[in-house]
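Lecture 7 notes: from sequence to structure.

We start with a single chain of 133 residues. Read the sequence below before looking at the structure.
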Amino acid sequence: MKAEEILADAKTIAVVGLSRDPAKAAHGVPAVLQAHGFRIIPVHPTATELLGEKVYRSLKDIPEPVDVVDVFRPSPEAPGIARDAVEIGAKALWLQQGIVSAEARRIAEEGGLEYVENRCTAVVRATAAISKN
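Now the structure, written as tokens:
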């Protein structure tokens, strides 16, 4: 499945590493997705609310189904996030631009998840004109 298809099929996106800082891509990209009708679920170690949504400490704490796990964390953290994404039954693992991990790819694919790396969800959304609104 292509990145465009994964995003077109998605409604709920858990964002691991959503930033408090509006100047960072890890805040702006999820905000753009939210503005285009995606349900954003922030995953952050200390924040309580981001983008008007309740924040969860880990993927495993999210009480609802997740379509895509969107990762804004360094590549060495990706395999652990991939394991959690498989465990919660996400449909896809998406590593943002600049993030690559052969181990995360293996874990995700062996767990039945679609996989995208080194691509920006906001760029894919814009170029494919995907909106849920």
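The chain is about 35% helix and 20% strand. Keep this in mind for problem set 3.
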